[in-house]
Amino acid sequence: MTTWDVVNSKASKTRPRGRVLRTGILVASCAVILTSGMVLTLQEPAPPPAPTFSEQALADAYADAIRLRSAGNSLLGSGTLAAAEATPLGSTVTLLTVQGQALFRPIAEPAEGNAVTASASASPGSSAPAPETLPDSIPSLLAGLVASAGERLSDANGADGGTSRLLAAVGTGQLLQAESLAAAAGVAVPEGPARRPDPSPPTVSTSANSATPIAGAGLGTAVPPGEDCQVPASAELAAAVTAVLEAERQAGYAYQVALPRMIGDAAGQAATFQEDHNNLAAGAEALMADYCIEPSTAAPGYALGTGFLANPAAGLGTLEAGALAAYGDLVAFTDGTGRGWAVQALLDTAQRAHRWGADPGPLPGLSVDPAALPPLPDEATSTESASMGTPTR
Fold first, then answer.
1. How far are the Cα atoms of 73, 78, 194, 360 from residue 190, in angstroms, in the given order?
2. Of 4, 57, 65, 266, which is most buried, counting CB atoms within 10 Å of its CB?
3. 315 CB-contact burial (10 Å; exposed 0-12 / middle 13-18 / buried 19+)
4. pLDDT tens-digit profile of 190-208?
5. pLDDT top residue among 152 and 338
6. What confidence score (pLDDT) does residue 91 get?
7. Residues 163, 164, 168, 174, Cα dihedral to 10°
8. pLDDT on residue 190
9. What are the pLDDT digits (tens) for 370-393?
């Protein structure tokens, strides 16, 4: 027998005794723990974090859109509406459907007993309306639309950038649709967030968006921070506010050209809107000064085309609608009172476009293809049920 065989033989004899010894120690330890009254328990899982302001605002916006959509569908199915009311009500349901699709966020089920998370999660997780009485008439639906619009525009001021733009677009679209529905029904629009533009220039929060002054073609010229310069701008903010200023300058020029070609109420409305654009251009320049951006020199004029001269009202509507994207960007990249100014300017610009017959879309200031949005949960379920019920060959 070799030395290696001897070593292996001894090791094999000692292994069982080692395992027995370790088992005995483990049993003795468990006995000590049990006789001393100690209890082993599994640690409770940490509760999920409470929703952020932006998450809660999105959940509330979704819940309102789905609730009002359900009310609109119920009214359409009641058979009590005049033809003049049914068409704009159908458009209202379509708008709320698109908005619901844009707001929908699939989420996990909330933990049982977590009331805060459950309330924030109930809306995005299901398309069922909230358990409150649905509006059952055109006036009550109008009141719901205007109230929802006010909440969305208010929440846009405190949400994060992308959420803010979406909320501002939803609120603006709901308010414009309420105006269309009220006109068709021959009733007044309930009191809501529609206001005249604030002529005072905006100021910005000193906790704003980024830290480096920028310069570049089309963005304005960055200037060193001085007495009137609070926070240097990000490239995105500089591009947005520069686009807004250019749009306001072009609109001011267009109204100047259009006014001599308009008569009656349209002329008076155009004169008021021209003053609005002068105020908005001044506000954009004040915002640029706060963010250390030097405005570019204004162009002496703008090409408006022969179509504008033939139908100035339609041309003005097209220009107003074209400025919405720039204001949507500005909402996303500003904060503080600058954000509030941008949200109000987005709403006012959409209302002017609507006044001239242009369609700002279901989400003014936000470029969205409704066909690319995911279906609502109830629509997806209906589609799935229909496909399952269709016999295959």
1. 21, 23, 10, 21
2. 65
3. buried
4. 887 654 444 344 554 433 3
5. 152
6. 96
7. 30
8. 87
9. 889 999 987 655 444 444 444 333
Residue 331: burial class (beta carbons within 10 Å; 0-12, 13-18, 19+): buried
222 φ, ψ (degrees, to nearest 5): -70, 140
Class of domain 51-194: mainly alpha
| C-alpha distances in Å from residue 272, one per residue of 100, 191, 265, 350, 357 | 35, 22, 11, 15, 17
Q: Is 46 helix (H, G, I), strand (E, B) or coil?
A: coil
Q: Minimal CA–CA distance to 120: which of 171, 58, 77?
A: 58
Within the chain, which residue ranges are assigned CATH 1.20.1260.10? 196-366
Per-residue pLDDT reduced to its tens digit, 40-85: 556 778 888 899 999 999 999 999 999 999 999 999 998 888 887 8
Determine the 3-state secondary structure of 174 from DSSP: helix
Q: Which CATH superfamily is domain 196-366 in?
A: Ferritin, core subunit, four-helix bundle (1.20.1260.10)
Residue 131 structure tokens: 């358990």
The sign of the dihedral angle between the CA atoms of 130, 134, 138, 144 is negative
Q: Could you give the CA distance from residue 118 to residue 341 in angstroms, rounded to a whole number? A: 33
Residue 139 has pLDDT above 70, yes or no: yes
Nearest CA-CA partner of 387 in 100, 379, 370: 379
